[in-house]
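Field reference: sequence -> structure
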Amino acid sequence: VMGLVKMLYDYDWAGAESAFKLALELSPSSADVCDHYGWLCWSTGRYDEAVELVRRARELDPLAHRSDVAAALLRAGRFEEAVTEARPSIAFDPTASPSPARPRRGS
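Structure field:
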């Protein structure tokens, strides 16, 4: 939680990174920590690391972290991969609120 607070409210990227690293040391199988650390990485332009982290989050908890891989790929400019990743999430729950990774109808 501290990493998320430092990232979203304090804009303390270094502090957030330290908190996420500590959280992963203490709980390496936490899908939420992997996911939120991925958000920090894409926010700081470290897209490959972000994709790796959010993929790990999805492996750990596929229902809670369905769309973040597509979002990370979208932010990385890897649009075709993002569409491919987003399709299963949309098929799983077509009524879910749109995410930045969700392709438009007909895509």
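Note: The chain has six helices and no strands.
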